Each structure stands twice: as C-alpha cells, then as structure tokens.
Amino acid sequence: MAQSEAVTRIKRGVRDTSTGRATLPVVLAGTFMVVLDFFIVNVAIPSMQLELRADAAQIEFVVAGYGLAYACGLITAGRLGDIYGRRRLYLLGLTLFTLASLACGLAPNAAVLVAARVVQGVAAAVLSPQVLTILGLAYTGAQRARAFNAYGMVLALASVGGQLIGGLLIAADPAGLGWRTCFLINVPIGLVALLLTPRVVPESTVDGAVRLDVTGVVLVTLGLVAIVLPLVEGRERGWPAWAWACLAASVPLLALFVRSQHRRSARGESPLVDLALFGHRTFRVGMLAVICFYSGLASFFLVLALYLQRGRGLGALGSGLEFTVMGLGFFVASFAARPIAARLGARALVVGAALLLAGQVLLAVTVARQGVGGSLAAFAPALLIDGAGLGMVMAPLNSLVLAGLPARLAGAASGVLTTTMQLGNSLGVALIGLVFYARLRPSVAESYAQALTASLYYLIALAALLAVSLVVLARKRPATAG
User: Fold this and answer.
1) Which residues are CB-neighbours of 28 under 8 A, at least 6 positions away?
2) What contacts 87, CB < 8 A, 6 or more positions away?
3) Theoretical Cys-Cys bridge with 399: which of 69, 148, 195, 249, CB 3.0 to 4.6 Å?
4) Rounded to a whole number, what is the distance in angstroms from the first to the last CA of the chain?
5) Average pLDDT over residues 383-397
6) pLDDT tens digits along 193-251
7) d(Cα 195, Cα 172) in Å, to the nearest integer?
8) Is 60 exceeded by the pLDDT of residue 469?
9) How many other CB atoms sit within 10 Å of the CB of residue 341?
10) In angstroms, rounded to a whole number, what is the distance separating the alpha carbons of residues 389 and 379?
11) How many C-beta neighbours within 10 Å does residue 12 have?
C-alpha cells in the first residue's frame, strides 16, 4: 500500500474509559524523565567531576553525548513507531532509559558515565516521539487539548524545576549517594511506568508502513550529527576546522535526504519523512515558531543559572529556588491558557509571546540596574511575567502545530517536531554561548551581569521573531489554539 493510502490503526481504543484516563500520566512519566535529565545534570557536574576525577572533555560529553544521541534519533524513532507500534517503541525506550539511568547512578568512572549517558540519549529519542503520537490518537477534542496542556506543564516542571530538584537531591544526600540520586530518581519512576504501560496505553501502527527507509535513516542521521555535534562542542573547543566542515557537510547531506524522500514518495514507497507534512501551512510556519521558542528556552536557563551561581554566588539550591518564581508564573498561566484560548483561539499564543517579550525586556532592565548586587526580589516581577509567557505558549504551540494533520502523518510529524525542539535547544545554547562568553571575564563578578544583559538582547530578538511567526499562524487559524 502506498503511503498516500496508509491509515493509522488503533488496535485497542482507550477513549472515555478509566484506562484511557490513565494513559496520560503513564506516557508523561517518560517525558518527565527525558526532559529532567537534560537539565538536572548541570547541578550535578561539580561534584560529579570531583568524585570521578573526570577531565573537561569527559564532563562536556556527559552533557553533549546525551543531547547529540537524543536529537539525532528522533525522526527515525518516530517512523519506527509507525511501523512497529507506538506503545512497543515507548516500552523499548522506557526500558533502555531506566536501565541507562541505573548505569549512570552506579558508574564507577567517567568513561562508563559517558557511555551510559549516550545510551540514555538513544533511549530518549526512541521514547519521545511516541508520546505525542499516542496522545494525539488516544484523545480527541477537549480531551486532546487537556492532554497537550498537561504535556506542556510536564515539560516546564522538568525543565524549570530541574535545577531545584537536583539541588534538593544533592542537599538531602540520601544514603550518601550525592549526585548519583539525580540519575537514580528515574529508576522507580521508570519501573512503575513499565508495569502500567501494557495495561493502559493503546497500541497503534500505520497500515502500509512495512519497510524502514534505511537510506533515509543514514542520510538524516549523518546530516543531523553534522549540525548538532559542532553546535554542542564547537565553542568549548574554539570552533576548530572540523566543526565548520561538519556544518558545511550538513547541507548536501540533508539535501540528499530530501531528494531521496521525494523519490520514494514518487515510487509509491514509504519514506522516512512524508514531505506532505510541509504542504500543511500551519505545520510549516509552526516549525519556525518552534525553532524560535526552543532556541530561547534552554539558552535562557543556562545563562540565568550562570549569572545566579557564579555571578551572585548562589548554590545549586538557591539558584533553583529563583527558578521556582518562573515556574509559578508558568503554572498560573497554563491554567488560564485554556479559557483564554477558548475566547481568542490561536491569538492566545500571540498574547503569550508578548508576555515573554515583556518579561525579557523587564529582566534586561533589572539586571542592568542591579548588576550582581541588590535584592533578588527585584527579579521576581520579570521572572513571573516570563514564566507566564512560557505557560501561554509551550503546550498550545505543540498542539497547534500538530492540529489538522492526517493520522497517517502523526508519527512523522511527532518525530520532526521533537527533532526541531532539540535542534532549537542546541542552536540556542551555541548562539547564546557566543554572546555570553564574548562579554564575560570570569575573574570579574560584575561581568556576569554584563554578559547576561547582552544575552537578553539576543533573547528579546528571538521573542519578537516568535511573536511575528505566531501572528502569521493566528491570521489563518483564529480558533485552534489548544
């Protein structure tokens, strides 16, 4: 059967039953672990490096190895879910992630930790695209909107709360495990989710998706590695020649990938990514919005944490407590987003982008005035507004981008969306690193304020571009914000 004729088959429905209601927390448990491990590790690095006697390169790959494996496997994993079943791939990813988390927590040396982190990244890539597809197929209408809103709230809890959770775990130091608890916390969560998944998560596949496009897998993986690897490692290594060569090579590799997908579609074969996705205007413009939003997310958390911990001398726990102010704004706005969206439709996202922009401007003004002194309470209004903007945009944006797509494109769309989110994170961190470290003199505390202020100018520009792209989306979709 040609891909154009393929349909999604849900082998066991879960709508309007207690089992269906249990689907949401079980699949979001996987999302929580994956996102938490992207952010929580930053808190653990100093004690981790000391105990394992790791060198700088090894510590870099504790972070970069996870992000690289994660970003580069998402599109392929989304397609594998179409072929072999989304629940089956979710279970596989969840099992690998739980085992890899245990290996990270028990790692006797840095080499084992780096290897386990790469396996974690692969597992995260297998798991993540299945979540959005499962939610999109298991729920409809208002239930789907609530499911995507919960997905966004879990993303925020894991990312905004990652530093606080890590700081609390390290401060509590249960059983003398220290930084290892940042990984071991995943084990009980993963085991419970593994027990419940076969009972409450529906299986679904795409009829006609019978063969994996191996050529496409090789080309897209090489192309993504060529982009992500220099982004996560280039600045730390002084942008060597290989980094620029990789970025240059990514263009022909991805061009060959697109050409191969066109050819397979023309022959009636199943491509890795059905390029019909990009024929949908909402999806196409939505990808620009996703890149802008996620390029500003992880990069903002990074520079704010550096300012708080190194510029103002806060510990991991104190820094994490500052992030809870943003989290409060996020959760209040998330609950308000649905009634606002019911009135404004997709224009509600524009309101969220405007709040995000206002929060960044106010924070830039506050940092410029305060420097590295004064009361931290002065930052609260800006962080609350910024968090509210995040809450108004994050979940509805994902929902809007996927809205209206045929079910047969669900797996490919989820893979492309989650890949774009990770590429946005990597690109944002790389670009903001150039801005932040260009203004930083590590021996001068006040320079952290100057570096953060310069970084906020970059983030303000991103927020403005996000707002413009959302205006374009809202112009044609007045009533479809989740």
Assistant:
1) 131, 150, 151, 154
2) 130, 134, 197, 198, 201, 202, 203, 204
3) 148
4) 33
5) 88
6) 999 999 999 888 776 656 788 898 899 889 988 988 888 778 777 889 999 999 999 99
7) 29
8) yes
9) 26
10) 16
11) 10
Furthest-apart CA atoms within the chain: distance in Å? 67
3-class secondary structure for the chain? CCHHHCCEEECCCCCCCHHHHHHHHHHHHHHHHHHHHHHCHHHHHHHHHHHHCCCHHHHHHHHHHHHHHHHHHHHHHHHHHHHHCHHHHHHHHHHHHHHHHHHHHHCCCHHHHHHHHHHHHHHHHHHHHHHHHHHHHHCCHHHHHHHHHHHHHHHHHHHHCHHHHHHHHHHHCHHHCHHHHHHHCHHHHHHHHHHHHHHHCCCEEECCCCCCCHHHHHHHHHHHHHHHHHHHHCCCCCCCHHHHHHHHHHHHHHHHHHHHHHHHHHCCCCCCCCHHHHHCHHHHHHHHHHHHHHHHHHHHHHHHHHHHHHHCCCCHHHHHHHHHHHHHHHHHHHHHHHHHHHHHCCHHHHHHHHHHHHHHHHHHHHHHHHCCCCCHHHHHHHHHHHHHHHHHHHHHHHHHHHCCCCHHHHHHHHHHHHHHHHHHHHHHHHHHHHHHHHHCCCCCCHHHHHHHHHHHHHHHHHHHHHHHHHHHHHHHCCCCCC
CA-wise closest residue to 168 among 150, 149, 181: 181
Amino acid at residue number 189: I
**Residue 481 CB partners (closer than 8 Å, separation 6+):** 341, 344, 345, 346, 347, 348, 349, 396, 399, 400
Residues 6+ apart with CB under 8 A from 174: 181
Task: Dump pLDDT digits (tens) for 86-111.
Answer: 999 999 999 999 999 999 999 999 99
**Structure token pair of residue 210:** 């019978």
Q: Tell me the C-alpha to C-alpha distance, in Å, between residue 52 and each of 48, 105, 108, 179, 396.
A: 6, 12, 7, 11, 42
Query: Does residue 8 contact residue 116 with C-beta atoms inside 8 Å?
Result: no
Question: For 76, phi and psi rounded to 5 degrees?
Answer: -60, -40
CA distance 472 to 69: 33
How far is 375 from 371, CA to CA, in rounded Å? 11
How many whole angstroms separate alpha carbon 360 and alpha carbon 384? 11
Cβ–Cβ under 8 Å, residues 386 and 367:
no
CB of 280 closer than 8 Å to CB of 401: no
Block residue for tokens 């419940």: 196
Strands 8-10 and 204-206: antiparallel
